[in-house]
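re: ur question from yesterday

yeah so i grabbed the chain u mentioned. its 514 aa long if i counted rite. heres the sequnce exactly as i have it in my notes:
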Amino acid sequence: MTANQTLILNVDDNDGARYAKTRILQSAGFRVMEAANGTDALAMVREEDPALVLLDVKLPDINGIEVCRRIKADPDTNCVLVLQTSAALTGRADKIRGLEGGADNYLAAPIEADELIANVNALLRMRQTQDELRESEERFRQLTDNIEDVFWMFSAPDGVLAYVSPAYATIFGRSTESLRRKHGSWLEAVHGEDRARLAGRWAALATQPYYDEEFRLQLPDGATRWVRDRVFAVRNARGEVYRVARVTSDISARKEMEALLRAADTNKNQFLATLAHELRNPLSPIRNAATLLGIAGENASERQAHAREVILRQVDHLAHLVDDLLDVARISEGKIVLRREEVNLGAVIAQAIETAGPLIAAREHQLDVQQPDGQVWVAGDPVRLAQSMGNLLHNAAKFTPKGGRIRLEVKVDGDHVRIAVIDNGIGIDADSLPRIFGMFAQAAVPPDRAPEGLGIGLSLVSRLLEMHGGQLRAESPGIGMGSTFTVELPVLRVTGAAADQAAQQAAAAPAGEI
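ran it thru and got these structure tokens back, copy pasting raw so excuse formatting
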């Protein structure tokens, strides 16, 4: 608020004094109106809405203290500033009486020009701050009155309710009036099985002014409603907690969707298990029939031999797919139990290579294996670890064009070992990388290549490795540029040359990396 925008009402029955004060105010850039008595002053305050009234105490009709009282008592004018002045009533008791009557300040004559202007500006700054605060509070109230969540404000550290938004009645099914009468009555709406937990959290707010809880409300009609309740401290400029804010949101719809998703996931797992069993049933007869085709020996035609090879290869592929489906269903239902033991990682990798070897050979890939000399031991289930490594090699062979290169590298790094499967195959686009380990996720493929598989192998490997306390990472520069899948597992111990190599790496590592 600048001076040339500010209207001041100067009230004084002394013409000379009134004139002098008006000139001082005008010279400072204020607009000034004048009144010589209390009656006119009250009328002008209502009609002209001045920012400040410069009010002399001694007036011919109504004294200045009564004029001030009426201004402050009227809701339409109580925001008008009143600066009282007096040349006669200058004692300490007079000033106190004026301030207690509602005046914002009291000046006793003689008053210097700079003193008058300084007091006027100070009061206007105070009023501007108050107006801004009032506008901020009004915006806050309009916001909280219209949001769907319940907003609460409590004093600290006593936890007395200072404000609650109207949404309380909608979400808690109880009136805000009943809450104001009994501040702790909201706890009565909490479901009986959750009430003790919430009461404990609320009681601890004096020392821990924050929490994030989900619980149920028992509504008056017997219905149950899920809510999320967040409490956090509000601090002043000195960092002291002086308020506790709280937001309560209705999450019933989200909880219902979560229940539907869990049911759908259960149905999916049951379907996968049923599908896997149904697919497995005909595999044995098919494999037996293929074996019978080979009994003919030298009398078997070339066409029969080729048919047998095709049947056996496809049966093995289908058996691999069925096993993955069953494992995914078991993991989702928590039915896989690892048979943990000390495992020689070299033996696991050898088993994985043996498993994926036929496909690697059939596609004429070059496989390069680089392992440290000596032995690396990890804790885990040797069958599941070999299955995981075999799946990664199988994937590399499947998604690398014929005659490609696959490299398997094993490196010990401190208390972990990293096994990387690197290929020069079709690669993975950047958009697919973040979701590559999701169930049924399939990466984008080049236009000349059809999608392969169901997208469950990598998800299965990732879950199995997590059960071993490890992790799986995927990297690729992009489509057509190959891929790298890196397994990281905790190491139990290393022996032989592998131990020496690990020690050399540890000694060469910069401080803080180990």
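noticed a couple things. The chain has a mean pLDDT of 84. also The radius of gyration is 41 Å.
anyway ttyl
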